[in-house]
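step=encode ok
step=design start
structure_in=
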């Protein structure tokens, strides 16, 4: 049986996210632990963390995954943004430990005028600094990006290079986003192309590090650099591609988490139903 979930809101109280995941029929789910569009945040209280952990235990689902906020940029050449980004990562790792969440997913950022190689170096240094200050107990999952201008992590080889520069590599895993991969030029539309892309992943990074799949269809064509998620089966990857991903033997045991739209076409429950249909 495939482990399937969606990103859910923490509105009201962080433990409410577990209820929302259960209501949608999730086996797993993802959250932001705080406002994803700002630098400021409210510290987690012991009561709210305990309520979340208890809700998780009662729900019987998991793993829960936390996603980093949007603003941090570990490749930034602006010192203020860079230091804020490192602090934000350190804080988020600690929040995951407090919530007993095993995985924190992060984008890597966008490099400045000095170029991609310098960007990769700054990302690795940022992660090294944050891990030194953060408690053990959570894996940092590096997520591939969609090939936007100056993005770091769209090329699988770049991710492998960055991981190679991490001092404490046992704390690093990878989250593979299907929309981002397709937008960056990695074909996922057939069983053959999925196999070829995963061979590239294994060569550049190692499939043993792959721990979570962001299962998103995409509005953009192959190699478009467009980070626009689409309902499962209704985008450029399509039903055959999504089915091929779900049935690949190296992926089938992993948690698949969707970050798909909710609109008049389909909601979270509808996308979960479509994934279960394609996974059957």
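sequence_out=
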């Amino acid at each position: 049986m495939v482990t399937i979930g969606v990103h859910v809101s923490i509105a009201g109280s962080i433990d409410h996210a577990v209820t929302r995941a259960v209501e949608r029929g999730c086996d797993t789910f993802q959250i932001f632990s705080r406002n994803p569009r700002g630098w400021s945040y409210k510290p987690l209280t012991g009561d709210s963390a305990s309520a979340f952990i208890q809700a998780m235990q009662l729900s019987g689902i998991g793993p829960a995954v936390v996603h980093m906020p949007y603003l941090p940029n570990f490749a930034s050449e602006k010192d203020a943004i860079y230091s804020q980004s490192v602090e934000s990562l350190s804080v988020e790792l600690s929040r995951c430990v407090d919530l007993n969440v095993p995985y924190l997913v992060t984008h890597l950022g966008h490099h400045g005028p000095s170029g991609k190689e310098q960007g990769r170096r700054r990302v690795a240094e940022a992660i090294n600094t944050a891990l030194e200050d953060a408690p053990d107990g959570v894996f940092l999952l590096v997520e591939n990006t969609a090939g936007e201008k100056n993005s770091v992590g769209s090329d699988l080889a770049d991710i492998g290079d960055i991981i190679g520069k991490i001092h404490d590599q046992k704390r690093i895993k990878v989250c593979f986003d299907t929309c981002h991969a397709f937008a960056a030029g990695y074909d996922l539309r057939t069983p053959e192309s999925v196999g070829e892309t995963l061979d590239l992943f294994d060569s550049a990074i190692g499939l043993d590090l792959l721990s979570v799949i962001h299962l998103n269809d995409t509005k953009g064509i192959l190699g478009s650099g467009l980070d626009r998620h689409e309902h499962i089966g209704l985008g450029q990857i399509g039903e055959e591609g999504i089915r091929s991903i779900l049935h690949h033997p190296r992926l089938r045991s992993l948690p698949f988490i969707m970050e798909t739209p909710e609109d008049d076409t389909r909601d979270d429950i509808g996308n979960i139903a479509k994934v279960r249909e394609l996974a059957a």
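step=design ok
step=annotate ok -> The chain has a mean pLDDT of 97.
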